[in-house]
Amino acid sequence: MVVPYERLGETIAVYREGFRRRGLDHALWGHVSDGNVHANVIPRCEADIEAGEDAILEFGEFVCSIGGCPLSEHGVGRSPVKQALLRKLYGPQGIEEMRRVKKTIDPASKLAPGILFPG
Asked: 92 with 61, same domain?
């Protein structure tokens, strides 16, 4: 997720609190100078994975609310959580416009299939 640099400290605090509240081990790293920090769960069990997905969706809501972008990495089409964040960010109309551009540029869907949209 990418946030305005001046909100980076606040964002890291939100991440830490969200993980703490859920009792999740986690790691934060990334491209701090760009306001891009990867918030990752270190799961101990299946329940941690589900709680981690819930945390990421919560963080995405927060990031959108402060003018950031919850999607700054690859593989959006391969992750239901990232797909939910894509819908939150652009809405159905925006996604349809993206699909039309993709279809125009790549009618046979040979370029990076499944990377932005599920296969």
From this structure: no
**pTM for the complete prediction?**
0.80
Tens of pLDDT along 54-77?
999 999 999 999 999 888 666 787
Residues 66 and 108 in one domain: no
The per-residue DSSP string of 37-51 comes to EEEEE--SSHHHHHH
Q: How many domains does the chain have?
A: 2
Q: Which residue range is the domain that position 117 belongs to?
A: 75-119
Cα–Cα distance, 53 to 34 (Å, whole number): 24
Write the pLDDT tens digit of every residue in 4-13.
999 999 999 9
Q: How many angstroms separate the CA atoms of 1 and 79, rounded?
A: 15
Q: Which helix (H) or strand (E) holds 5?
A: none
